[in-house]
């Protein structure tokens, strides 16, 4: 376990390539999955470079188009999506890809070698922060196609619960570029060393403290929340004088990658709950390429993730771009909010 007290200490020098090679051939990491993850890392390096260049490379601003969810696409949303597609389409490890920025799944073209993994991504998370030089990131989730190799890949192949993920993670482009990965045996963090051009292991077996005094939610939506979320946040705001008996701090970066990264580093609770603005939608965040990979990482670090009623990783998706209410982070806090929903 690494704690904040360990920051600044000498790192192991183990590169992501070596970390993956050491686990290669195990049940958790068959060779094709290793190569697939190396390609994800390569794509993230390219995206990191574009993000760092910003205005110098003319990559800021709107692309003048909308995605299937009706959100304005930024130039970097599309660039990051293209980089991920290029990195993966000819590698031979995938059957298909799915992305926040693509209406439908993208089967690997027939003239390229085929694999049996399915890759989902949010190419650029935190789009509203691109121009203002605040941390953004890429989120990814890997599933396996369970139908036979001869069966044409379809969207149904993707509609698996998050508990079926075989690898997941994100890369945060902040003061450092850090790739965070789980294969189901804990969470490891790799910082990009630009001198070597390699991701280097800087924290292993990350653990989220079970208790916290820090919450993350977009407070401007308070009037739209449901009673259990309002109750939880009200109790935090009462501080020492209230039933929690302690003062809470608040953070909201508006990039899920950056908010989740903070929680993995020092604990906390993150909520993007259902609210009354669009009552027909279960939430704002997307289940398959935002909530599922982040929930698995958080659970692997000893935290919890629910939609207020059930474990996110147990939700059976019905749609590729399905939305979900998200409550994740320090275990005891997530359990408290969930209890407010289920035992009200
Ligand atoms: P994306 O940029 O991929 O559309 O995701 C943005 C998400 C998430 O990163 C963040 O937590 C949330 O939207 C912020 O939403 P608000 O602007 O409503 O706070
Ligand atoms: Mn996102
Ligand atoms: Mn995005």
The spatial strand order of the largest sheet comes to: 4-3-5-6-7-8-9-10
Shape: globular
Task: Average the pLDDT over all residues and give the rounded result.
Answer: 94
- Give the count of structural domains: 2
CATH architecture of the largest domain: 2-Layer Sandwich
Briefly note the CATH topology name of the largest domain. Fructose-1,6-Bisphosphatase, Chain A, domain 1
Unique ligands: 2,5-anhydro-1,6-di-O-phosphono-D-glucitol, manganese (II) ion
Point out poorly predicted stretches: none
Structural class: alpha+beta
Give the full name of the CATH homologous superfamily of the largest domain.
Fructose-1,6-Bisphosphatase, subunit A, domain 1
Strand fraction: 15-25%
Could you describe the 3D structure shown?
This protein is α+β, with helices and mostly antiparallel strands and 344 residues long. It has two domains: 7-204, Fructose-1,6-Bisphosphatase, subunit A, domain 1 (Fructose-1,6-Bisphosphatase, Chain A, domain 1, 2-Layer Sandwich), CATH 3.30.540; 214-343, D-Maltodextrin-Binding Protein, domain 2 (3-Layer(aba) Sandwich). It is built from eight helices and 17 strands. The protein has helices at 16-23, 31-53, 75-88, 155-158, 227-238, 256-266, 287-300, 331-342; strands at residues 62-66, 72-74, 94-99, 106-107, 117-125, 136-144, 167-173, 177-182, 187-193, 198-203, 214-216, 249-250, 269-272, 285-286, 304-306, 323-324, 326-329. The strands form four sheets. An eight-stranded mixed beta sheet has the order 4-3-5-6-7-8-9-10, with helices on both faces. A five-stranded mixed beta sheet has the order 12-11-13-17-15, sandwiched between helices. β7 and β8 form a beta hairpin. α2 (31-53) runs antiparallel to α3 (75-88) and α5 crosses α8. It starts with 15 loop residues before the first helix and ends with a helix. It binds 2,5-anhydro-1,6-di-O-phosphono-D-glucitol and manganese (II) ion (2 copies). The site of one manganese (II) ion (MN) has 4 residues, from β5. One manganese (II) ion (MN) binds next to β5.
């Amino acid at each position: 376990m690494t704690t904040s007290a360990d920051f600044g200490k000498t790192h192991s020098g183990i590169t992501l390539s070596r970390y993956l090679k050491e686990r290669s051939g195990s049940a958790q990491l068959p060779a094709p999955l290793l190569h697939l993850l190396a390609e994800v890392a390569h794509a993230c390096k390219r995206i990191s470079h574009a993000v760092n260049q910003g205005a110098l490379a003319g990559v800021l601003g709107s692309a003048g188009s909308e995605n299937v969810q009706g959100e304005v696409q930024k130039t970097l949303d599309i660039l990051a999506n293209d980089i991920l597609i290029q990195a993966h389409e000819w590698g031979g490890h995938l059957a298909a890809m799915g992305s926040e920025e693509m209406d439908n799944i993208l089967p690997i073209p027939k003239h390229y070698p085929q694999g049996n993994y399915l890759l989902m991504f949010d190419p650029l998370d935190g789009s509203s922060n691109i121009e203002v030089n605040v941390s953004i990131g890429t989120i990814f989730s890997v599933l396996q196609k369970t139908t036979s190799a001869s069966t044409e890949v379809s969207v149904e192949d993707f509609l698996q619960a998050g508990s079926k993920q075989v690898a997941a993670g994100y890369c945060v482009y902040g003061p450092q570029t850090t790739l965070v990965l789980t294969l189901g045996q804990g969470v490891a963090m790799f910082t990009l060393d630009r001198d070597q051009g390699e991701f280097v292991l800087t924290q292993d077996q990350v653990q989220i403290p079970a208790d916290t005094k820090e919450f993350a939610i977009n407070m401007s939506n308070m009037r739209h929340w449901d009673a259990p979320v309002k109750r939880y946040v009200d109790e935090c705001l009462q501080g020492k004088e209230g039933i929690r008996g302690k003062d809470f701090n608040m953070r909201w970066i508006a990039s899920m990658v950056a908010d989740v990264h903070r929680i993995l580093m020092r604990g906390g609770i993150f909520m993007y709950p259902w609210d009354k603005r669009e009552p027909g939608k279960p939430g704002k965040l997307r289940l398959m390429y935002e909530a599922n990979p982040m929930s698995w990482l958080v659970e692997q670090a000893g935290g919890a993730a629910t939609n207020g009623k059930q474990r996110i990783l147990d939700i059976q998706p019905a749609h590729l771009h399905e939305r979900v209410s998200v409550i994740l982070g320090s275990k005891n806090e997530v359990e408290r909010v969930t209890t407010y929903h289920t035992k009200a």
